[in-house]
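quick one, 260 residues, struct below
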Amino acid sequence: MNKKIRVVVVDDSAVMRQLLTEILCSDPDIEVVGTAPDPYIAREKIKQLNPDVLTLDVEMPRMDGLAFLRNLMRLRPMPVVMCSSLTQQGASVALDALALGAIDFVAKPVVDVVHGIRESAQEIITKVKMAAHAHVRPLVEVAAMQVAERHDAGVVLPKRSAPTRFATTDRLIAIGASTGGTEAIREVLAGLPSDIPGIVIAQHIPKAFSGPFAIRMNSSSILNVCEARDGQPILAGHAYIAPGDQHLMWCATVLATSAA
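---
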């Protein structure tokens, strides 16, 4: 018999704790071994129960989720799935959490939370299962702080003009990433030179999150990174991220978006 994935649910909402517990326990491979309404109680539950995965709310009393995540990844690294509101601010916080070491995030709807979370039940279960098999490394505090400080200050790395030798899209790079791929994409783009052919990127991400994600990637790379628009020319030294609810198609030098 396979060992069940042991989960601790951390959320200041009693309703959300109950919903997440019901959803996760509906899967035979997952067991919710404890819940906590704030990070201080969560810390004790982690010590007592030694869970495989933590689901962590962002906005909580006594200590916010990001501060707790930073401490957790520095002192006791473990797989964490964040719960963040489906807003632009929630998107920014979720991306901060991924930079600090969270495996993935669950987007909580702003209205009709109960119905919205239940509709996302299978996605939540899948993300927790994926997190349980992730290899989590201790937080490199300096690197994480540099990313956060650069983003908070609105700093964008200096961009270079697109080179003329790749003026057309006869050479093009396509990148696709599923759940948990945002930080991998950031690392890839950060290591690329400015004289690279145009890049098109499809990342599995909620619609409200793709714009903030593109802005963050632009601040982390010397490439010009943006959220893709219909009819946009694909230029060298540029990367185009598909809107969260769409795919990308390209023909010659023109980029087109289509509903997912």
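Residues 5-145 form a domain with the Rossmann fold fold (CATH 3.40.50.2300).
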